Amino acid sequence: MTNIILGKNQYGKAENRVVRITRDSPRHEIEDLNVTSQLRGDFASAHFDGNNEHVVATDTQKNTVYAFAKDGIGSPEDFLLRLGRHFTGEFDWVTGGRWEAEQYTWLRIEGDNGEHDHSFVRGGTETRTAVVQIDGDDTTIIAGLQDLTVLKSTQSGFVGYPRDKYTTLPETEDRILATSVTAKWRYNRNDLDFNEVYADVRRLLLAGFSRNYSYALQHTLKEMAEAVLEAHPEIDEIRFSTPNKHHFVVDLSPFGLENPNEVFFAADRPYGLIEASFLRDGADADHRSWDGIAGFC
Ligand SMILES: O=c1[nH]c(=O)c2[nH]c(=O)[nH]c2[nH]1
């Protein structure tokens, strides 16, 4: 018989949709998350012997998510830290795991008398993300956002690139620059006011995107990263995955019309895909907290 050993493994309940309403006063608060819990540890007997005595059921993991929401969520990072510490503390053979969340944005509806107390509209913008990983005494936190769609209608160009026999793209010093930002950043501490830092990083990313002339999306990503790393010593690294959402100037000359960057064709594919990570000098470029986080270079 071929000798088989168990390699890396993890398991749990994926995408637990939990909505927590805080209703201590007439002015309700809403927190809306998609939470995935995955345990790592000694699960060899389940795989090899059909013995489930170490298998904390995925159903139990789901129930724990909802039970913990009763005590409030606070921030996705704090909620995931609570879950991770619970599972690793409660079961000896659970030595670590991975807990991940997406948080959806709800905004208060502007009613007849100002902001409504208990009516909300889903924000059409980005989704907040968080991943907590525990391995023994080691805890790592990656925060982030996805689908933050931004556009600048001028102050962007693309020139000076090499031309070969396949190059047709005309150089331009005035184009639309648009992208949908997915960014993830790595904390070097886990005792933070995560909501406050998140709000400020989001603000800095947008300010960095808009501030200066863009020589390329690559150049603009560096401006965004620099703003974040300068203001937040508790962040060691930020990674981006950004589709270049091309806007092509439509040729209106067949209709006898000029088109000085007024009418564009917004192409959805193919798209340039620009990915980059920026680190504080001296930080670990291959830090273990990125293990299992897909979709970045
Ligand atoms: O900002 C850009 N970066 C590129 O790498 C690139 N390549 C391309 O064709 N257009 C652009 N724009």
From TrEMBL:
<comment type="function">
    <text>Catalyzes the oxidation of uric acid to 5-hydroxyisourate, which is further processed to form (S)-allantoin.</text>
</comment>
<keyword id="KW-0560">Oxidoreductase</keyword>
<keyword id="KW-0659">Purine metabolism</keyword>
<dbReference type="InterPro" id="IPR002042">
    <property type="entry name" value="Uricase"/>
</dbReference>
<dbReference type="Pfam" id="PF01014">
    <property type="entry name" value="Uricase"/>
</dbReference>
<comment type="pathway">
    <text>Purine metabolism; urate degradation; (S)-allantoin from urate: step 1/3.</text>
</comment>
<protein>
    <recommendedName>
        <fullName>Uricase</fullName>
        <ecNumber>1.7.3.3</ecNumber>
    </recommendedName>
</protein>
<comment type="similarity">
    <text>Belongs to the uricase family.</text>
</comment>
<dbReference type="InterPro" id="IPR019842">
    <property type="entry name" value="Uricase_CS"/>
</dbReference>
